[in-house]
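Feature request, filed as a ticket because there's no other form

It would be nice if the structure record came with a short human-readable summary line next to the tokens. Right now we just get the raw output. Example of a typical job, pasted below so the devs can see what we mean:
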Amino acid sequence: MTRTTETSPGLKISDFEDKSLLIVDDDDPFRLRLARAMEKKGFQVRDAKTVENAIKIVKSTPPKFALVDLRLEDGNGLDVVEQINSYNKDSRIVMLTGYGNLPTAVAAVKAGAIDYLSKPVDADDVEYALLAPKNAKAKPPENPMSADRVKWEHIHRVFELCNRNVSETARRLKMHRRTLQRILSKRSPR
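Raw output as currently delivered:
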């Protein structure tokens, strides 16, 4: 028995006539692995790596379901969400990102997403989010990130946003430059 049937009473992919799913993510191995897994679950999957390609797919065949990464090579995933909603108001879109934070989650929901997931996710998490009843509360994560991992992810996110400039990152995080360098040199905590 899958987690979906255990936790979301009633909604299955077989309940939907349109089973089209668009996966938009610039991480090739993740996108392709997830596409295969979602096909096994009964979805008809198309995938895109960029905002431009995703919008072309949306214009030709608007999907019923979509999983869209927030940060893409050529822009913002929120643009894809808005396009999907303009072509198909009944679409069920889940926003995905490696950097979960409240303002982004709010922006995703305002753009038309029904849920927001932080990476890493697996096919069961995605299926649950896409098929969850409209008023269902989000389930707690099976393996949430530790506080150390969340801190590490945040530091690396700011570092990337500062174009990998250690001095600028340290200034914005209000920490000593050498402390930041030590953190950046270590592997991510579990």
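Something like this underneath would help us a lot:
The chain has two domains: 3-131, 147-185.
The mean pLDDT is 82.
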